[in-house]
Amino acid sequence: MRLVILGGGESGIGTAILGKKKGYEVFVSDFGKIKGNYKEVLIINGIVWEEEKHTEDLILNADVVMKSPGIPDKSPIVKKLVEKGIPVLSEIEFAAPFTDATIIGITGSNGKTTTTMLTHHLLKSAGLNVGLGGNIGKSFAWQIADNKYDSYVLELSSFQLDGILNFKPHIAIITNISPDHLDRYDYKYENYIDSKFRITMNQTEEDYLIYDADDEAIAEWFKTHTTKAKLIPFSLTKTFSEGAYIKNNKMEISINQEEFTMDTEHIALEGKHNMKNAMAATSVAKLMQIRKSTIRESLSNFQGVEHRLEKVLKIQNVQYINDSKATNVNATFFALDSMNTPTVWIVGGVDKGNDYNELMSLVREKVKAIICLGVDNKKIIDVFGNVVDMMIEVDNMNDAVRMAQRLSEKGDTVLLSPACASFDLFESYEDRGNQFKQAVKNL
Protein backbone atom coordinates (compact mmCIF):
# COMPACT_ATOMS: atom_id res chain seq x y z
CA MET A 1 0.00 0.00 0.00
CA ARG A 2 1.39 3.38 -1.01
CA LEU A 3 0.72 6.23 1.46
CA VAL A 4 1.40 9.73 0.14
CA ILE A 5 1.50 12.60 2.62
CA LEU A 6 0.92 16.18 1.50
CA GLY A 7 2.59 18.60 3.91
CA GLY A 8 5.74 17.97 5.93
CA GLY A 9 4.69 19.61 9.20
CA GLU A 10 3.89 17.99 12.56
CA SER A 11 0.85 16.02 11.36
CA GLY A 12 2.57 14.97 8.13
CA ILE A 13 5.74 13.68 9.78
CA GLY A 14 3.75 11.90 12.50
CA THR A 15 1.61 10.16 9.88
CA ALA A 16 4.73 9.18 7.92
CA ILE A 17 6.24 7.51 11.00
CA LEU A 18 3.03 5.64 11.82
CA GLY A 19 2.55 4.63 8.17
CA LYS A 20 6.10 3.30 7.94
CA LYS A 21 5.65 1.36 11.19
CA LYS A 22 2.44 -0.21 9.84
CA GLY A 23 4.14 -1.39 6.63
CA TYR A 24 3.08 1.28 4.14
CA GLU A 25 5.36 2.52 1.37
CA VAL A 26 5.53 6.19 2.43
CA PHE A 27 6.24 9.35 0.40
CA VAL A 28 6.09 12.91 1.84
CA SER A 29 5.62 15.88 -0.50
CA ASP A 30 5.64 19.51 0.66
CA PHE A 31 5.02 22.46 -1.67
CA GLY A 32 7.00 24.65 0.73
CA LYS A 33 10.17 23.92 2.69
CA ILE A 34 10.32 21.16 5.32
CA LYS A 35 11.88 22.23 8.64
CA GLY A 36 15.34 20.85 9.38
CA ASN A 37 14.36 18.80 12.45
CA TYR A 38 11.53 17.13 10.49
CA LYS A 39 13.90 16.33 7.60
CA GLU A 40 16.24 14.59 10.03
CA VAL A 41 13.37 12.42 11.30
CA LEU A 42 12.47 11.45 7.72
CA ILE A 43 16.07 10.59 6.87
CA ILE A 44 16.62 8.56 10.06
CA ASN A 45 13.43 6.60 9.33
CA GLY A 46 14.35 6.04 5.68
CA ILE A 47 11.25 7.86 4.39
CA VAL A 48 11.35 9.34 0.86
CA TRP A 49 10.43 13.04 0.64
CA GLU A 50 10.47 16.12 -1.58
CA GLU A 51 10.06 19.84 -0.89
CA GLU A 52 9.12 23.00 -2.81
CA LYS A 53 7.16 20.92 -5.32
CA HIS A 54 4.47 18.30 -5.80
CA THR A 55 5.65 15.71 -8.37
CA GLU A 56 2.39 14.38 -9.81
CA ASP A 57 3.81 11.01 -10.95
CA LEU A 58 4.89 10.28 -7.36
CA ILE A 59 1.58 11.42 -5.84
CA LEU A 60 -1.18 10.27 -8.19
CA ASN A 61 -0.09 6.60 -7.80
CA ALA A 62 -1.10 6.59 -4.11
CA ASP A 63 -3.52 4.11 -2.55
CA VAL A 64 -4.31 6.61 0.16
CA VAL A 65 -3.33 10.25 0.80
CA MET A 66 -3.05 12.11 4.11
CA LYS A 67 -3.48 15.85 3.57
CA SER A 68 -2.27 18.36 6.17
CA PRO A 69 -5.10 20.57 7.46
CA GLY A 70 -3.48 23.72 6.07
CA ILE A 71 -3.83 22.58 2.43
CA PRO A 72 -7.19 23.65 0.94
CA ASP A 73 -9.42 21.15 -0.89
CA LYS A 74 -9.27 23.57 -3.83
CA SER A 75 -5.53 23.09 -4.40
CA PRO A 76 -4.83 21.59 -7.86
CA ILE A 77 -3.09 18.43 -6.60
CA VAL A 78 -5.96 17.63 -4.20
CA LYS A 79 -8.52 18.13 -6.99
CA LYS A 80 -6.61 15.68 -9.22
CA LEU A 81 -6.49 13.07 -6.43
CA VAL A 82 -10.25 13.39 -5.85
CA GLU A 83 -10.92 13.10 -9.62
CA LYS A 84 -8.95 9.86 -9.64
CA GLY A 85 -10.99 8.53 -6.72
CA ILE A 86 -7.97 8.26 -4.39
CA PRO A 87 -9.09 8.68 -0.73
CA VAL A 88 -7.76 11.94 0.81
CA LEU A 89 -7.86 11.70 4.63
CA SER A 90 -6.85 13.82 7.59
CA GLU A 91 -4.22 12.60 10.05
CA ILE A 92 -6.97 11.85 12.60
CA GLU A 93 -8.84 9.56 10.19
CA PHE A 94 -5.65 7.74 9.14
CA ALA A 95 -4.35 7.22 12.68
CA ALA A 96 -7.49 6.36 14.69
CA PRO A 97 -7.89 2.73 13.48
CA PHE A 98 -4.42 1.94 14.88
CA THR A 99 -5.41 2.58 18.51
CA ASP A 100 -8.14 1.20 20.77
CA ALA A 101 -7.72 4.06 23.26
CA THR A 102 -10.75 6.07 24.41
CA ILE A 103 -10.88 9.22 22.30
CA ILE A 104 -12.21 12.57 23.49
CA GLY A 105 -12.55 14.97 20.55
CA ILE A 106 -13.02 18.70 21.05
CA THR A 107 -13.98 21.22 18.37
CA GLY A 108 -15.49 24.71 18.24
CA SER A 109 -14.65 28.16 16.90
CA ASN A 110 -13.28 29.32 20.25
CA GLY A 111 -12.37 27.81 23.58
CA LYS A 112 -11.28 24.50 22.13
CA THR A 113 -7.62 24.83 23.13
CA THR A 114 -8.47 25.87 26.69
CA THR A 115 -11.08 23.10 26.95
CA THR A 116 -8.66 20.53 25.51
CA MET A 117 -5.84 21.52 27.87
CA LEU A 118 -8.17 21.65 30.88
CA THR A 119 -9.70 18.25 30.04
CA HIS A 120 -6.21 16.74 29.68
CA HIS A 121 -5.19 18.37 32.99
CA LEU A 122 -8.25 16.90 34.78
CA LEU A 123 -7.63 13.36 33.48
CA LYS A 124 -3.86 13.45 33.95
CA SER A 125 -4.19 14.79 37.51
CA ALA A 126 -6.43 11.80 38.24
CA GLY A 127 -3.59 9.48 37.22
CA LEU A 128 -4.99 8.42 33.85
CA ASN A 129 -2.51 7.44 31.12
CA VAL A 130 -3.68 10.12 28.67
CA GLY A 131 -2.22 11.72 25.53
CA LEU A 132 -2.84 15.25 24.23
CA GLY A 133 -2.90 15.96 20.49
CA GLY A 134 -4.76 16.90 17.36
CA ASN A 135 -4.40 20.59 16.62
CA ILE A 136 -1.99 21.11 19.54
CA GLY A 137 1.06 19.39 20.92
CA LYS A 138 2.58 16.29 19.38
CA SER A 139 0.98 14.64 16.36
CA PHE A 140 -1.75 12.09 17.21
CA ALA A 141 -0.35 9.62 14.66
CA TRP A 142 3.18 10.02 16.04
CA GLN A 143 1.95 9.31 19.58
CA ILE A 144 0.16 6.15 18.41
CA ALA A 145 3.41 5.03 16.76
CA ASP A 146 5.57 5.75 19.83
CA ASN A 147 3.38 5.57 22.95
CA LYS A 148 0.69 3.40 24.45
CA TYR A 149 -1.91 5.75 25.90
CA ASP A 150 -5.24 4.48 27.25
CA SER A 151 -7.02 7.66 26.20
CA TYR A 152 -6.41 10.75 24.06
CA VAL A 153 -7.77 14.27 24.33
CA LEU A 154 -7.73 15.74 20.81
CA GLU A 155 -8.32 19.32 19.73
CA LEU A 156 -9.93 19.06 16.28
CA SER A 157 -10.22 21.86 13.74
CA SER A 158 -12.93 21.92 11.09
CA PHE A 159 -10.20 21.20 8.50
CA GLN A 160 -9.26 17.98 10.32
CA LEU A 161 -12.93 16.99 10.56
CA ASP A 162 -13.41 17.62 6.83
CA GLY A 163 -11.00 14.75 6.19
CA ILE A 164 -12.75 12.06 8.26
CA LEU A 165 -14.86 9.12 7.05
CA ASN A 166 -15.15 6.69 9.99
CA PHE A 167 -13.46 8.56 12.85
CA LYS A 168 -15.60 8.50 15.99
CA PRO A 169 -14.71 9.95 19.38
CA HIS A 170 -16.32 8.25 22.38
CA ILE A 171 -16.86 11.73 23.87
CA ALA A 172 -17.23 14.76 21.57
CA ILE A 173 -17.40 18.41 22.60
CA ILE A 174 -18.57 21.37 20.49
CA THR A 175 -17.60 24.44 22.53
CA ASN A 176 -19.42 26.96 20.28
CA ILE A 177 -19.72 27.97 16.64
CA SER A 178 -19.17 31.43 15.19
CA PRO A 179 -18.13 32.50 11.67
CA ASP A 180 -14.46 31.64 11.06
CA HIS A 181 -12.36 30.41 8.12
CA LEU A 182 -15.30 31.19 5.82
CA ASP A 183 -12.78 31.67 3.01
CA ARG A 184 -12.36 27.86 3.09
CA TYR A 185 -16.14 27.19 3.00
CA ASP A 186 -17.22 29.20 -0.08
CA TYR A 187 -18.21 31.97 2.36
CA LYS A 188 -21.21 29.85 3.41
CA TYR A 189 -21.65 29.75 7.20
CA GLU A 190 -23.83 26.62 7.01
CA ASN A 191 -20.96 24.70 5.35
CA TYR A 192 -18.67 25.60 8.25
CA ILE A 193 -21.34 24.61 10.82
CA ASP A 194 -21.85 21.23 9.09
CA SER A 195 -18.10 20.74 9.16
CA LYS A 196 -17.97 21.13 12.95
CA PHE A 197 -20.83 18.66 13.42
CA ARG A 198 -18.89 15.98 11.51
CA ILE A 199 -17.37 15.26 14.94
CA THR A 200 -20.58 13.41 15.90
CA MET A 201 -21.54 11.87 12.54
CA ASN A 202 -20.25 8.37 13.36
CA GLN A 203 -21.16 8.38 17.05
CA THR A 204 -23.56 5.70 18.37
CA GLU A 205 -25.92 5.48 21.36
CA GLU A 206 -22.88 4.42 23.44
CA ASP A 207 -21.18 7.78 22.83
CA TYR A 208 -21.63 11.32 24.16
CA LEU A 209 -21.90 14.80 22.63
CA ILE A 210 -21.29 17.69 25.04
CA TYR A 211 -22.36 21.06 23.59
CA ASP A 212 -23.13 24.70 24.36
CA ALA A 213 -26.91 24.97 24.69
CA ASP A 214 -26.69 28.80 24.57
CA ASP A 215 -25.18 28.77 21.06
CA GLU A 216 -27.48 29.92 18.22
CA ALA A 217 -25.70 28.04 15.42
CA ILE A 218 -25.75 24.78 17.40
CA ALA A 219 -29.46 25.21 18.23
CA GLU A 220 -30.25 25.85 14.55
CA TRP A 221 -28.39 22.71 13.47
CA PHE A 222 -30.36 20.57 15.94
CA LYS A 223 -33.66 21.82 14.42
CA THR A 224 -32.97 19.93 11.19
CA HIS A 225 -30.40 17.27 12.17
CA THR A 226 -29.97 14.52 14.76
CA THR A 227 -27.15 12.51 16.25
CA LYS A 228 -27.32 9.08 17.88
CA ALA A 229 -24.99 10.19 20.69
CA LYS A 230 -26.28 10.85 24.19
CA LEU A 231 -26.56 14.64 24.57
CA ILE A 232 -25.01 16.55 27.46
CA PRO A 233 -25.72 20.30 27.20
CA PHE A 234 -24.06 23.09 29.20
CA SER A 235 -25.38 26.62 29.72
CA LEU A 236 -24.96 29.86 31.64
CA THR A 237 -28.71 30.60 31.60
CA LYS A 238 -30.66 27.32 31.47
CA THR A 239 -30.81 24.38 33.90
CA PHE A 240 -30.98 20.67 33.00
CA SER A 241 -31.76 17.36 34.65
CA GLU A 242 -28.89 15.94 32.55
CA GLY A 243 -26.12 18.43 31.79
CA ALA A 244 -24.10 21.30 33.27
CA TYR A 245 -25.14 24.80 34.29
CA ILE A 246 -24.32 27.76 36.54
CA LYS A 247 -26.78 28.65 39.31
CA ASN A 248 -26.22 31.03 42.24
CA ASN A 249 -22.49 31.23 41.42
CA LYS A 250 -22.18 27.46 41.56
CA MET A 251 -21.27 25.14 38.72
CA GLU A 252 -23.71 22.23 38.86
CA ILE A 253 -23.31 19.08 36.79
CA SER A 254 -25.67 16.14 36.64
CA ILE A 255 -24.62 13.12 34.54
CA ASN A 256 -25.84 9.51 34.79
CA GLN A 257 -27.68 10.29 38.05
CA GLU A 258 -24.52 11.66 39.66
CA GLU A 259 -24.24 15.25 40.89
CA PHE A 260 -21.18 17.51 41.07
CA THR A 261 -21.13 21.09 42.40
CA MET A 262 -18.39 23.66 42.85
CA ASP A 263 -18.32 27.38 43.68
CA THR A 264 -17.30 29.28 40.56
CA GLU A 265 -15.03 31.57 42.61
CA HIS A 266 -12.70 28.59 43.22
CA ILE A 267 -12.26 27.92 39.49
CA ALA A 268 -8.88 29.26 38.35
CA LEU A 269 -10.10 30.40 34.91
CA GLU A 270 -11.89 33.75 34.82
CA GLY A 271 -14.67 35.03 32.56
CA LYS A 272 -18.04 33.72 31.41
CA HIS A 273 -16.63 31.88 28.39
CA ASN A 274 -14.20 30.05 30.67
CA MET A 275 -17.08 28.86 32.86
CA LYS A 276 -18.36 27.15 29.72
CA ASN A 277 -14.95 25.61 29.03
CA ALA A 278 -14.85 24.40 32.64
CA MET A 279 -18.35 22.86 32.40
CA ALA A 280 -17.41 21.02 29.20
CA ALA A 281 -14.14 19.66 30.61
CA THR A 282 -15.74 18.69 33.93
CA SER A 283 -18.50 16.82 32.07
CA VAL A 284 -15.78 14.69 30.47
CA ALA A 285 -14.14 14.09 33.86
CA LYS A 286 -17.51 12.93 35.24
CA LEU A 287 -18.03 10.56 32.29
CA MET A 288 -14.51 9.20 32.88
CA GLN A 289 -15.43 8.68 36.58
CA ILE A 290 -12.81 10.99 38.04
CA ARG A 291 -13.24 11.58 41.78
CA LYS A 292 -14.94 14.83 42.80
CA SER A 293 -12.07 15.96 45.03
CA THR A 294 -9.60 15.53 42.14
CA ILE A 295 -11.84 17.52 39.78
CA ARG A 296 -12.15 20.37 42.30
CA GLU A 297 -8.42 20.52 42.91
CA SER A 298 -7.61 20.44 39.17
CA LEU A 299 -10.13 23.18 38.34
CA SER A 300 -8.64 25.41 41.03
CA ASN A 301 -4.98 24.98 39.99
CA PHE A 302 -5.21 25.03 36.17
CA GLN A 303 -2.77 27.55 34.70
CA GLY A 304 -4.57 28.47 31.46
CA VAL A 305 -3.21 28.58 27.92
CA GLU A 306 -0.37 30.69 26.54
CA HIS A 307 -1.50 33.51 24.19
CA ARG A 308 -5.08 33.28 25.47
CA LEU A 309 -5.91 36.25 27.77
CA GLU A 310 -2.44 35.77 29.25
CA LYS A 311 -1.46 38.44 31.77
CA VAL A 312 2.05 39.56 30.80
CA LEU A 313 3.11 42.40 33.14
CA LYS A 314 1.74 45.36 35.03
CA ILE A 315 3.79 48.49 34.27
CA GLN A 316 2.96 51.85 35.94
CA ASN A 317 -0.32 50.25 37.00
CA VAL A 318 -1.27 49.35 33.42
CA GLN A 319 -2.02 45.64 32.81
CA TYR A 320 -0.71 44.20 29.52
CA ILE A 321 -2.64 41.16 28.23
CA ASN A 322 -1.59 38.83 25.40
CA ASP A 323 -4.60 37.34 23.60
CA SER A 324 -2.79 36.67 20.32
CA LYS A 325 -4.68 33.38 19.95
CA ALA A 326 -7.85 35.43 19.26
CA THR A 327 -7.79 34.99 15.49
CA ASN A 328 -11.49 35.72 14.91
CA VAL A 329 -14.09 38.26 16.01
CA ASN A 330 -15.85 35.89 18.40
CA ALA A 331 -12.65 35.23 20.38
CA THR A 332 -12.00 38.97 20.63
CA PHE A 333 -15.61 39.47 21.75
CA PHE A 334 -14.89 37.22 24.77
CA ALA A 335 -11.69 39.15 25.47
CA LEU A 336 -13.29 42.61 25.36
CA ASP A 337 -16.28 41.32 27.33
CA SER A 338 -13.96 40.28 30.18
CA MET A 339 -12.26 43.72 30.39
CA ASN A 340 -13.38 45.81 33.35
CA THR A 341 -11.05 48.81 32.92
CA PRO A 342 -10.60 51.33 30.06
CA THR A 343 -8.77 49.42 27.32
CA VAL A 344 -6.22 50.24 24.64
CA TRP A 345 -6.91 47.59 22.01
CA ILE A 346 -4.31 46.31 19.55
CA VAL A 347 -6.15 44.68 16.61
CA GLY A 348 -5.61 43.61 13.01
CA GLY A 349 -3.89 41.14 10.69
CA VAL A 350 -5.23 38.95 7.93
CA ASP A 351 -9.02 39.33 7.90
CA LYS A 352 -10.94 36.07 7.33
CA GLY A 353 -14.20 37.75 6.31
CA ASN A 354 -14.77 39.44 9.68
CA ASP A 355 -17.85 41.42 10.67
CA TYR A 356 -16.49 43.89 13.22
CA ASN A 357 -19.95 45.37 13.93
CA GLU A 358 -20.51 42.52 16.40
CA LEU A 359 -17.93 44.23 18.64
CA MET A 360 -19.47 47.71 18.40
CA SER A 361 -21.27 47.84 21.76
CA LEU A 362 -18.22 46.50 23.63
CA VAL A 363 -15.87 48.93 21.87
CA ARG A 364 -18.13 51.88 22.70
CA GLU A 365 -18.27 50.81 26.33
CA LYS A 366 -14.68 49.75 27.02
CA VAL A 367 -12.15 50.85 24.38
CA LYS A 368 -10.49 54.27 24.63
CA ALA A 369 -7.98 53.82 21.79
CA ILE A 370 -7.37 51.41 18.91
CA ILE A 371 -3.98 50.51 17.50
CA CYS A 372 -4.22 48.81 14.09
CA LEU A 373 -1.45 46.29 13.55
CA GLY A 374 -1.90 44.88 10.05
CA VAL A 375 -0.90 45.42 6.45
CA ASP A 376 -4.46 46.40 5.49
CA ASN A 377 -6.51 48.04 8.26
CA LYS A 378 -9.16 49.73 6.11
CA LYS A 379 -12.08 47.64 7.38
CA ILE A 380 -11.27 48.23 11.05
CA ILE A 381 -10.84 51.97 10.47
CA ASP A 382 -14.13 52.18 8.53
CA VAL A 383 -16.07 50.47 11.35
CA PHE A 384 -14.52 52.09 14.44
CA GLY A 385 -13.01 55.33 13.07
CA ASN A 386 -15.76 57.50 14.54
CA VAL A 387 -16.30 55.42 17.69
CA VAL A 388 -13.02 55.85 19.59
CA ASP A 389 -11.06 59.03 20.35
CA MET A 390 -7.74 57.70 19.09
CA MET A 391 -6.97 55.39 16.16
CA ILE A 392 -3.40 54.72 15.09
CA GLU A 393 -1.81 52.48 12.46
CA VAL A 394 1.54 50.75 13.01
CA ASP A 395 3.38 48.04 11.09
CA ASN A 396 5.38 46.29 13.80
CA MET A 397 4.88 45.06 17.34
CA ASN A 398 7.44 47.34 19.04
CA ASP A 399 5.67 50.44 17.73
CA ALA A 400 2.29 48.99 18.73
CA VAL A 401 3.39 48.42 22.32
CA ARG A 402 5.22 51.77 22.66
CA MET A 403 2.17 53.58 21.29
CA ALA A 404 -0.11 51.64 23.67
CA GLN A 405 2.06 52.73 26.60
CA ARG A 406 1.75 56.36 25.49
CA LEU A 407 -2.05 56.17 25.16
CA SER A 408 -2.71 54.34 28.43
CA GLU A 409 -2.91 55.78 31.96
CA LYS A 410 -2.95 54.30 35.43
CA GLY A 411 -5.66 51.66 35.87
CA ASP A 412 -6.00 50.92 32.13
CA THR A 413 -5.46 47.64 30.28
CA VAL A 414 -3.52 47.17 27.04
CA LEU A 415 -5.05 44.23 25.20
CA LEU A 416 -3.54 42.47 22.19
CA SER A 417 -6.58 40.66 20.75
CA PRO A 418 -6.17 40.80 16.98
CA ALA A 419 -9.43 39.12 15.74
CA CYS A 420 -7.38 38.19 12.69
CA ALA A 421 -4.83 35.67 11.45
CA SER A 422 -1.19 36.67 11.84
CA PHE A 423 0.39 35.81 8.51
CA ASP A 424 0.81 39.35 7.16
CA LEU A 425 3.47 40.46 9.68
CA PHE A 426 4.23 37.34 11.75
CA GLU A 427 4.99 33.65 11.29
CA SER A 428 2.09 32.53 13.49
CA TYR A 429 -0.13 33.70 16.34
CA GLU A 430 2.52 32.30 18.74
CA ASP A 431 5.21 34.45 17.11
CA ARG A 432 2.90 37.48 17.34
CA GLY A 433 2.19 36.79 21.03
CA ASN A 434 5.87 36.23 21.83
CA GLN A 435 6.86 39.48 20.10
CA PHE A 436 4.20 41.29 22.13
CA LYS A 437 5.50 39.84 25.40
CA GLN A 438 9.08 40.75 24.48
CA ALA A 439 8.09 44.30 23.52
CA VAL A 440 6.25 44.75 26.84
CA LYS A 441 9.30 43.48 28.74
CA ASN A 442 11.45 46.01 26.85
CA LEU A 443 9.34 49.00 27.93
From TrEMBL:
<keyword id="KW-0133">Cell shape</keyword>
<comment type="function">
    <text>Cell wall formation. Catalyzes the addition of glutamate to the nucleotide precursor UDP-N-acetylmuramoyl-L-alanine (UMA).</text>
</comment>
<keyword id="KW-0436">Ligase</keyword>
<dbReference type="GO" id="GO:0005737">
    <property type="term" value="C:cytoplasm"/>
</dbReference>
<dbReference type="InterPro" id="IPR036565">
    <property type="entry name" value="Mur-like_cat_sf"/>
</dbReference>
<dbReference type="Pfam" id="PF21377">
    <property type="entry name" value="MurD_N"/>
</dbReference>
<keyword id="KW-0067">ATP-binding</keyword>
<keyword id="KW-0963">Cytoplasm</keyword>
<dbReference type="GO" id="GO:0005524">
    <property type="term" value="F:ATP binding"/>
</dbReference>
<protein>
    <recommendedName>
        <fullName>UDP-N-acetylmuramoylalanine--D-glutamate ligase</fullName>
        <ecNumber>6.3.2.9</ecNumber>
    </recommendedName>
</protein>
<comment type="similarity">
    <text>Belongs to the MurCDEF family.</text>
</comment>
<dbReference type="InterPro" id="IPR004101">
    <property type="entry name" value="Mur_ligase_C"/>
</dbReference>
<dbReference type="Pfam" id="PF08245">
    <property type="entry name" value="Mur_ligase_M"/>
</dbReference>
<feature type="binding site">
    <location>
        <begin position="108"/>
        <end position="114"/>
    </location>
    <ligand>
        <name>ATP</name>
    </ligand>
</feature>
<feature type="domain" description="Mur ligase C-terminal">
    <location>
        <begin position="307"/>
        <end position="420"/>
    </location>
</feature>
<keyword id="KW-0573">Peptidoglycan synthesis</keyword>
<feature type="domain" description="Mur ligase central">
    <location>
        <begin position="106"/>
        <end position="284"/>
    </location>
</feature>
<keyword id="KW-0547">Nucleotide-binding</keyword>
<dbReference type="GO" id="GO:0008360">
    <property type="term" value="P:regulation of cell shape"/>
</dbReference>
<dbReference type="GO" id="GO:0009252">
    <property type="term" value="P:peptidoglycan biosynthetic process"/>
</dbReference>
<dbReference type="Pfam" id="PF02875">
    <property type="entry name" value="Mur_ligase_C"/>
</dbReference>
<comment type="pathway">
    <text>Cell wall biogenesis; peptidoglycan biosynthesis.</text>
</comment>
<keyword id="KW-0131">Cell cycle</keyword>
<dbReference type="GO" id="GO:0071555">
    <property type="term" value="P:cell wall organization"/>
</dbReference>
<dbReference type="GO" id="GO:0051301">
    <property type="term" value="P:cell division"/>
</dbReference>
<keyword id="KW-0961">Cell wall biogenesis/degradation</keyword>
<keyword id="KW-0132">Cell division</keyword>
<dbReference type="InterPro" id="IPR005762">
    <property type="entry name" value="MurD"/>
</dbReference>
<dbReference type="InterPro" id="IPR013221">
    <property type="entry name" value="Mur_ligase_cen"/>
</dbReference>
<dbReference type="InterPro" id="IPR036615">
    <property type="entry name" value="Mur_ligase_C_dom_sf"/>
</dbReference>
<dbReference type="GO" id="GO:0008764">
    <property type="term" value="F:UDP-N-acetylmuramoylalanine-D-glutamate ligase activity"/>
</dbReference>
